[in-house]
Write a structure and sequence with these properties.
This protein is mainly alpha-helical. It is built from two helices and no strands.
């Protein structure tokens, strides 16, 4: 009687693991198809080269640097006065 239950348990284990394996394979297949469809109809936007973006933003960064330095300096002065 005990051996019969072990064999039944093994059958259910194999059935369950096979079901999970087949489901995961199906999911990978479907996700690959969806990925190809999305890439075809919604291609990624091309970005400007990094150097060009840095040059465009360099003037803005230089203007903001003074304000940032002033804020940091004021914070340090305030912290020193509290001690």
């Amino acid at each position: 009687m005990g051996a019969n239950l072990v064999i039944e348990g093994l059958k259910f284990m194999v059935l369950g693991m096979t079901t999970v394996f087949l489901f995961l394979m199906l999911m990978i297949f479907v996700l690959n198809i969806i990925s190809k469809i999305v890439k075809k109809y919604f291609p990624p936007k091309k970005l400007a080269p990094i150097r060009a973006r840095k040059q465009n933003n360099s003037a803005t960064l230089q203007k903001d640097d003074g304000a940032i330095i002033a804020a940091i300096t004021a914070s340090i002065q305030e912290f020193k006065q509290q001690k």
